[in-house]
Amino acid sequence: MPAPIEDYALLGNCRSAALVSRDGSIDWLCLPRFDAPAVFAALLGNEENGRWRLAPSDPVESSTRQYLEDSLILETVYSTASGRARVLDLMPLGDTNSVIRIVEGLAGETSFEMDLVLRFDYGRSVPWVEKIDLLTLSAVAGPDRLILSSSVATHAWDHHTGVRFRVAAGERQVFSLRHQPSHLPVQPDCDLDEAFVHTLNEWQTFAGRCPDVGRYSAQVRRSLITLKAMTYAPTGGIVAAVTTSLPERVGGERNWDYRYCWLRDATMTLLAFMNLGYFDEAQAWREWLLRSVAGNPEQMQIMYGLAGERDLQEYDLPWLAGYEHSQPVRVGNAAAGQHQLDIYGEVADAMTQAIKGGLPRHPRSAAIARLILPYVESIWREPDEGIWEVRGGPQHFVHSKVMAWVAFDRAASLAETTEEELDRSKHYRRVADEIHREVCTKGLDPSGEHFVQAYGSSEMDASLLQIALTGFLPADDPRFVRTLEQIESRLQKNGLLLRYDSDSCGDGLSSGEGTFLVCSFWLADVYVLQGRHEQADALYQRLLGLCNDLGLLAEQYDPTGQRMLGNFPQAFSHIGIINTALNLHKAQCPARARCG
Q: Which residues form the Trehalase-like N-terminal domain (predicted)?
């Protein structure tokens, strides 16, 4: 049985990621990259689907865990009746693709047990395992090879590999599991001590560039590290989460693969990076974007693979029982073929902010914009599946229309000094004004009092908060104020926001899901805009209190069951942590005072 979602820690090397439970079991790991088939898939099944547990064999009296300061190296300290020891877990940064686990004795003597269950292809394939020497074994299945190197001899039983050993104070044992193509000769292991020091220094150097944001600084740095870990270094692509099929409702069907690069999520990550001064990461993402979307604007997708792949075919893995029996377990994502109008506005806003933030203009970006904007002009009146990727058929979602307005509004604001560009800017402004008028006419409820989820609907949607956050209307506009009141009264659940009411909205799936955390961060941002700083800060502190002991957040939260739901960790949620902290910090600074 997998652990609760919030009990997991994240390891990562900006190529792939692993999830480690409180009891020392790595239950999720995809190699050699985020979207590769898992070699440990116990998270979505059981231990026979692959896992790597390393923990005391004696009863544990207490345990604590933390990341070594401003890094992604996990330290877990165990106390037993006979001694105290720590386990250091990391995925080294660099060209290798490996996991290192170090056991160090701190006091007395502690007994440990290591149990390695290697399964390829999402827990389906048992590899061919053989000893290379006393301390090294190789596991091969098809194109992949995993090599375990250890400082203590292991033995095999019933398709498991393991060992029991003891560490006294000052002693240590080291295990390294690395991936390579199976057709190549076995590659030598890296210098583990050197890899440890290099990885620690790299993470701390990265985090050290983060500006001070007052009392929010520690959590902002942790979220920044988390987002960096979800970046695929070879291309600059940013995944929405490192997992697939963690349920939005336990036992339900709302289980999706988030190991891909959504333009929406990635553009918001770009803005978070830029707001903190991380322009190298922002530039790498922009390069990824321009490569991925190049071509016919009609073929622009809402998401891509890590290197810009377009074919993300969705299929089920019936041999996996699913997290707490939440089925189906899905790989790929059919939403890649959906029409979602809002992504054009997200990308336009991000590119505009990049230029205003000092990122040099890219010659290809202007050319792509000149292709995309006429296309958006031709389709913005059409219905779409919207930001929440509903599977109940397209609608005229108000948020989608607002983001179409954003695309033209931002394009108009980037006018050059040439006459040709000025003419183009005027045209973009006319289109933006036309969209604005239609939304303010058709996007309101029949009484004309407040905005609704879609034209002709009576439902509310938390994405309507973007009406103020994008500048479509001022936060004090009476129509928006009444919209906010409706959202608060109809979508709040124990002080947190649902994205919409799945019981009544008819999104094509069975009803029921948790509160969508980024929506509550948006609510706090709106409170800041309205000058309700104490209320914004109180909500923000409530949200921070939902993070696990390592500062990590999933996509959703169930206030009734008091547990996390959805894929983990979720980029959207950590973007919320960063951006709301920045908004609060700026609001608390005197006008024109230098903050940070």
A: 3-126
Percent of the residues in the chain that have a pLDDT greater than 70, as a whole number: 95
Four-CA torsion 290, 400, 572, 327, nearest 10 degrees: -110
**What's 500's DSSP letter?**
B
Phi, psi of 327 (to 5 degrees): -125, 155
Q: pLDDT of 99-126, one tens digit each?
A: 999 999 999 999 999 999 999 999 999 9
In this predicted structure, the answer to whether residue 295 has a pLDDT above a threshold of 90 is no
DSSP-assigned beta bridge partners for residue 384: 395
* 345 vs 352: CA distance, rounded Å: 10
| CA dist 458 → 133, 154, 278, 394 (Å) | 69, 63, 42, 16
Structure tokens at 353: 């902010």
Tens of pLDDT, residue by residue over 219-277, are 999 999 999 999 999 998 889 999 999 999 999 999 999 999 988 887 888 888 888 98
Strand locations in 2-59 (E): 9-12, 17-20, 25-30, 38-40, 51-56
Question: How does strand 155-157 pair with strand 160-168?
Answer: antiparallel
Task: Identify the structural domains of the chain with CATH numbers, from first to last.
Answer: 5-203 (2.70.98.40), 209-587 (1.50.10.10)
Contact of 295 with 283, CB cutoff 8 Å: no
What's 212's DSSP letter? P
pLDDT range class, residue 512, cuts 50, 70, 90? confident
CA within 13 Å, CB half, 33: 15
**Mean pLDDT (the chain, rounded):** 92
Task: State if pTM tops 0.85.
Answer: yes
Q: Crossing angle for the helix pair 398-413 and 342-356, nearest 10 degrees?
A: 30
Query: Under a CB-based contact definition with an 8 Å cutoff, are residues 31 and 118 in contact?
Result: no
319 three-state secondary structure = coil
**pLDDT, position 508:** 65
Residue with tokens 């970006």: 365
Pair of tokens at residue 543: 């949200």
Which one-letter DSSP state was computed for residue 126?
P
Three-class HEC string of 399-466: HHHHHHHHHHHHHHHCCCCCHHHHHHHHHHHHHHHHHHHHHHHHCECCCCCCECCECCCCCCEHHHHH
Q: How far apart are CA 443 and CA 84, in angstroms?
A: 62
Residues present in the chain in total: 596
Q: What are phi and psi of 435, to 5 degrees?
A: -60, -45
Q: What is the CA radius of gyration of the chain?
A: 25
The answer to whether 73 and 199 have CB atoms below 8 angstroms apart is yes
The span from the first CA to the last CA of the chain, in angstroms, equals 45
pLDDT band at 337 (very low <50, low <70, confident <90, very high): confident
Q: Which two tokens stand for residue 130?
A: 């053989």
Contact 400, 464 (CB under 8 A): no
